[in-house]
Amino acid sequence: MAVRNLEKNILTSMRTLFRAKDNINLQNLRLKYLPYMLIFPLAPVFANMQGALFSDAVHLFGLNAMTLMGSAYCVGAGTLFALTSAKNMAGASRIFSVATAAAFIPWLAVAESRLSLLLAVLFMFGLGGCAACAAFAYTFALNNTERLLGAAAISLFFSLNQLDSGLTLLSGYFDKIYLTLLVAGTCICLFFYKTKDFAAAVNRPRATLNPALLLMLYFFVAHYFVEIFYTYLPGASSTSAMIANGAVGIVVVCLALALQFLTTSSVWNMCNLFFVAMILTYALYFTPDGSILRSVARLTHGFEQMGYIAAYYLLGCVFKKHGDFRLFKLCLVTILPVSMLSYVIPGALAAGAPDLLPLAATLTSSVVFIIFIMLSPAYSKHLFQADWSEDFYAVDMTEASRKVKQSDLLEKLKLSPREKEVAALLLNGQAAKQIATELEISVHTANFHIKNLYRKLNINTRSELFARFNPHIFSEKVQIK
């Protein structure tokens, strides 16, 4: 009976999540925030390009270039977060951009060797710090639309690079020319950082991990572990594979944007598409090399871009809602060493037991997807159908600090956090339209909360609400930050 109830709960939650909506509107795009949108996609592109820049022949400490550079990238990002605060992030971004350029310029002039690999490791260390600065801006400065477009830009940059590298349109010169342009773009964007744009992040109250953050972090880490296996599979860096991945990746980015802008479908659906496509990709790697099904695997792998977009979008949205810089830093400093394992584990398998890679990739992807599906009731309750989830349908995520402070006046009334916010604003004299503007929700949603509030208090009008509470006493005990 318990198993049957669990299955029913999961299926019900999945149906609910499938119908969930987001609201992404180009009218919410602010051009002055373009540097914060571009900086994030510019930096992570490099972390996925080392396979095209170094052969497997170059090693340091028994590890290949891909493993060393990926690890250095993670360590650089972790170092920045360990040593900075929200107040000095703008200055730190300039320091890391200079360090990145200082290692990158000599790397361009050195032939492939251990020296060039060492310079590349230093370059990737600095670049990881740049990406960490960018992640901070992406999370706390942008709104929902800007955040989605920034995440899509990550995937588009990478897909275009794969396609052009596979086609060798510029006779092999493209990679380094492209990298140089991206390094310059990264440094320019970092110097446009303005401390005032992060004022809200500096003074936010102390946040703690809650179920919404934990569920978001699970998908973020899971998508990374699932995707990274492909990089180590045989033929993953071949010309045909890069062309297939790049071309399909571009189509997938367009599909993801269409899902959000045209159908307003929840990002939860993108998460599922990513898992299904990656499991199919790895399962098809059991077929013979050169077969049609192996070629199909290279096409379905293009759906990795769905995972990138969904993971980074959710990361920014949920932390903007529920996190602060201290918790953001703590989570990423914890996640980055785990991300390093995502390079080390398949790297070790590729070196010692390459025949086991497809099996390990398929099993890993299947297990994390099964867990994701089993967590559907939690994702519905705490994330996509929570009492604050209408923020996905607003311009931006309302900060958690705006929730009403607990007081004896509201503690025993069994109101949701949003209803407490609405009650405070009503008692401060605001109308439904003003409440909608204050909380960045629609007027329809504001009226919906007012109706529920009145029902729970067994009243019908605002005058009855004022009669229920003394507005003067209320304003002293319950505040909106």
Write a structural description:
This protein has 481 residues and is an all-alpha fold. It has two domains: 2-388, Up-down Bundle (Growth Hormone, Chain: A); 403-477, Orthogonal Bundle (Arc Repressor Mutant, subunit A). The protein is 72% helix and 1% strand. A two-stranded antiparallel ribbon has the order 1-2. The longest helix is centred in the last third of the chain and has 28 residues, at 325-352. The protein is globular. Mean pLDDT is 79; it is low at 403-408 and 471-481.
In short:
The protein has 24 helices and 2 strands. The protein is mainly α. The protein folds into 2 domains: 387 residues, Up-down Bundle (Growth Hormone, Chain: A), CATH 1.20.1250.20; 75 residues, Winged helix-like DNA-binding domain superfamily/Winged helix DNA-binding domain (Arc Repressor Mutant, subunit A, Orthogonal Bundle), CATH 1.10.10.10.
Write the layout of secondary structure elements.
Blueprint: H1 2-19, H2 34-42, H3 44-47, H4 50-53, E1 59-60, E2 63-64, H5 65-83, H6 89-109, H7 114-140, H8 144-167, H9 174-191, H10 199-202, H11 211-231, H12 239-261, H13 267-284, H14 292-300, H15 304-322, H16 325-352, H17 357-374, H18 376-384, H19 408-411, H20 417-427, H21 432-439, H22 443-457, H23 462-468, H24 471-477
Antiparallel strand pairs: 1-2
Question: Which CATH top level class of the largest domain fits?
Answer: Mainly Alpha
User: Roughly what fraction of the amino acids lie in strands?
Assistant: under 5%
Q: What strand line-up does the widest sheet have?
A: 1-2
Using the coordinates shown, work out and report the CATH topology of the largest domain.
Growth Hormone, Chain: A
Q: Give the helix proportion (percent range).
A: over 70%
- Rounded Rg: 24 Å
Element order: H for helix, E for strand: HHHHEEHHHHHHHHHHHHHHHHHHHH
Distance between the termini: 47 Å
The number of distinct structural domains comes to 2
The CATH architecture term of the largest domain is: Up-down Bundle
Query: What would you call the structural class?
Result: mainly alpha
Unreliable runs? 403-408, 471-481
User: Mean of the pLDDT scores?
Assistant: 79
Q: How would the global form be characterised?
A: globular
Report the biggest beta sheet as strand number plus sense, adding barrel if it closes. 2 strands, antiparallel
